[in-house]
Amino acid sequence: MSEKLSILLDGTAVARALSRIAHEILERNHGVDALVLVGIRSRGVQLAQRIARKLAELTGREVPVGSIDITPYRDDVEQPLERIEGTSADVPLPINDRVIVVVDDVLATGRTIRVVLDVLSGLGRPRAIQAAVLIDRSEREVPIRADYVGQNVLAGERRHVRVRVRELDGADEVALQ
Known about the structure:
Blueprint: E1 6-9, H1 11-29, E2 35-40, H2 43-59, E3 65-68, H3 81-85, E4 89-90, E5 99-107, H4 111-121, E6 128-136, E7 148-152, E8 161-164, H5 166-169, E9 173-176
Parallel strand pairs: 2-3, 2-5, 5-6, 6-7
Antiparallel strand pairs: 1-9, 3-4, 8-9
Helix pairs in contact: 1-2
């Protein structure tokens, strides 16, 4: 039995959503001087890089982009202690007094962003941490919300949001399966 896919965003809509997010980040932060974008591996990294390119296009200023792999920090999979203590962050330092915009493809329960907050707090004291997501599923288990959202989706527990990015998957799209 094949799974039925409903395309929520095609490549053009993904580009438009990321452009809108970049404009909102620029407006809220009155420029890019203090910004650092941090993508959550894997697709959040590509989305952060695209937002940074758009911000550079708009302002003529480069925005540093880092990444965090939360796999060793996941609370839903038992991990050996030595793996948890290893760093999986490639974040441009220092982050003190900077505005960190965490970028992810999908925000559902909020647990991933909670872990990223823990990792970032171990790296310094940013002025602010904001979250940008392409898709917000609104299924929180912890009280976390995104500051910038490409699209809100009420997918239901049994449906999955699948984000594809051209750098990893050959095409840009968001589908519901």
